Amino acid sequence: MTIKPTALVHNSLVALALLLAGCSDHSRSSMPGTPAAGADTAALQQIAALEARAQQINDANAIKKLQRAYGYYVEEGLWDEVVNLFADNATLELARDGVYAGKDRIREYFYALGNGQQGLQQGQLNEQLQVMPVVTLGADGTTAKARWRNILLVGQLGKHAEWGEGPFENEYVKESGVWKLSKMHWQQAILVPYAGGWAANEDYNKGIWVSAALPPDAPPTDDHGWWPETYLPPFHFTNPVGTYAPSGAPIADMTTAATSVSLPLQNEFPESQSLAQRVVSLQATVTNLEAENEIENLQGIFGFYYDKNQWQQAADLFTEDATLEWGGSGVYVGKAHILAWLQNHGAEGAQEAVLNDQMQLQPIVSVAADGLTAKARWHLFSQEAHHGVDHFWGTGIYENEYRHEDGVWKISRLTLYSSMRTPYEDGWGVTALPRSIPDAQLPPDQPPSADYENYPSVFVPPFHFDNPVTGSPETAIPAADTVAALADAASISSAMRTLDQRVGLLQDADAVERLHTIYGYYLAHNQWDELAGIFTEDGTIEIALRGVYKGRVSVRRNLDLYGVQNELRGTLHNHMQYQPVIHVAADGQSALMRSRAWSLMGNYGGVGRFMGGIYENRFEKRNGVWQLHKDQQINTYFAVYDVGWKELEWRPAPGITDTNPPDAPPSIYFEMYPRPFLPPYHYTNPVTGK
Predict the structure, then answer these.
(1) Which long-range contacts does 41-45 make (Cβ < 8 Å, 24+ apart)?
(2) What residues does each domain of the chain span?
(3) Angle at 406 between CA 400 and CA 407, to 5 degrees
(4) Using one digit for the tens of pLDDT, what is the confidence trace for 227-272?
(5) Which of 29, 56, 158, 421 could form a disulfide with 433 if both were Cys (CB 3.0 to 4.6 A apart)?
(6) Strands 625-640 and 608-622: what pairing?
(7) Fold for domain 283-476?
């Protein structure tokens, strides 16, 4: 990760620079420009430890960006960009095609996947959503492993359409300071025709994509069959808290509980700099990392507001001079006109008979060197319905810009490139709808900025970032006027204490998201003992109006409501969490998180279902280990696959089960679509505080 100077760092150091006039010659001996070796040994050890902790967060973020870029490149058929993400001696194993070793063979594989050509064919859809990362860094700082969930919407208009899903268990290596893929292994859980879905169909290709025409270098490492057979790919990580035991206490297993088991040996902060220079460099890096988190929260919050027609709250996230362009709508300039455009989509607030879930996925955030602006690419996955009228699937790509004003991040440019839109009953193999056009009743200020068409046409939205491996990263270092600010040992010590707290909060946010994601993997595979083990001893679970189950023993009892322990043949329970909005308390001992839930559920030969929902959870740090303290899921809908949302009859959430009763009734009562309900937020608007 590039170390970038920021205006925030500059401003915070100007006051400290004034202290230089009163410094003695002795105190100046450790100022910028003097060798770091002359500084206090304990201070050098402290800054090195802080740098290493920040580097871990940098590394985890770089790996996430690498994998997300992979998804963006694959779905556009940009095979050369894909291959450049791999190390020279990497291996590739997708589904049951076998193992392809080395970059040349990996290139052959992807070109075979693309029928020998770069880019998609006319009428081809190849959406690849990379969600739910669990990144674990190696102790040496140059290797890592990560689990991901890949969601596929693939097909050819007029010919076929499929749902696909399955986990990656990948490995990564850092070479010359750049993270690359060293081992990619994707397990195909399902690939089934859109018509009928997983309840009516076996796997579409039985895990074989290109190996019949392009034999692999080695057979599959675990040839386990195909849907409706089920398989749990091994986790590279152990339970971060401990597996539940019948006594109710988790069995502690902390061997790989942290994101990394020890500080990396490679420190990318130059040790030749003075202590003051290293502190300033670290401040710039930490500010950059904080900005990435804040921007991810901001965009996630926009999505949650948009879901429920909270147009004023959504508009307040923009700068006064912001622009918005949604598909082919044209460009709306200024917050007032953006608000008018939003209000043109319906009345304010959650509405009867309206579903408008706008999932914000797969972020790649790039903060500029000035620390005051940023860009980000996001994936949109939408579910929209007007009860009794229509219902749709949609996808798109955001390329947005952000600005730091008045101490907060705001959206300065929102540009959504629409990709695919299709009626639910047809699917993308049958019907492809055109993108939107400018509204004659509320005309835009400017025409559309790009001339393109939706699927089935081929269009690649421009990338704001270079290839994470082959691109030329910025190498900016703190400017001289910011480096000369730390005046004495006391100022440096104070700055490092603040950095210790800030880095700690960044680590906490990462750990909370990681724990919540692991929860999703355990839930998806009926790993009830593992799932119950991540709760605090006095934790609670409250799902689907079944009531509140209090304490780890009751949490484990609650999980029996959803089936038996472990996987069952022909049963799909793929529960996914994404779009987290995380706020860690200042003391680093608790955190609140809102996230989205989406499930593919059902039984082969039976009934398939979708579930949508919202989590509002609380996490607590106990004995230095993050645990889940309150798990509350508010369901948006349960929809039968063959019905969808348009004709979905209202029903309450499942409610209390008399044979497995809760310890307390539901803490809140909620309604599900088509009735309106706004799940309460744990946060206020990040711009206005409303």
Answers:
(1) 43/275, 43/489, 43/492, 43/493, 43/496, 44/275
(2) 47-233, 283-476, 499-640
(3) 80
(4) 999 999 999 999 999 999 987 778 765 433 444 334 444 566 666 7
(5) 421
(6) antiparallel
(7) Nuclear Transport Factor 2; Chain: A, (3.10.450)
